[in-house]
Amino acid sequence: MGQKTTRPLSPHLQVYRWSPQMAISIFHRATGFVLATAGMLTLLWWLSAIGGGAESYAVFQKYVVGAGDSATSVELAINWFFRLLALAVIFSFFQHLFSGLRHLVLDMGAGYELKTNRTWALAAFVAAIFATALVALVVASRVIGV
User: Per residue in 26-36, pLDDT tens?
Assistant: First the structure.
């Protein structure tokens, strides 16, 4: 009982070299958290604004959708905050989606080769960025009226 064992210790995160596979795993968890908190809180606020009547919904629209021409600087700042939050939720959605699709392929038994796994991890990041940019461009073009 008193003898010293020479078993190896568990490696810590500092020992590992970062790879896209590690990053996409962490991002998948983080984006799930963003979708569950920021997205759900905004959805609940929207639903309660609908249930609260026209005046309540107008307040929601002023802060989240568009502050309008007669908005104060605080209202404009809050409106821009929600626009950035919406962009983060959209990116989180696409990142979580493409990462989940990658994981579905892995669950089927394909893509475990290191080079293939790395390629698909990077492709999920790139696809999420492009899909977010596409949605942002479509929304911006409709707001501008092009």
Answer: 999 999 999 99
Residues making up the chain, counted from first to last: 146
Q: Return binding residues.
A: 96
Alpha-carbon distance 59 to 64, whole Å? Answer: 9
Task: Detail the residues annotated as belonging to a binding site for heme.
Answer: 96
Q: Could you give the CA distance from residue 95 to residue 124 in angstroms, rounded to a whole number?
A: 7
- Domains of the chain and CATH, by start: 21-144 (1.20.1300.10)
Residue 111, both tokens? 């893509």
Question: Rounded to whole angstroms, how far apart are CA atoms 74 and 88?
Answer: 21
End-to-end CA gap in the chain? 78
Kindly report the pTM of this predicted structure.
0.82
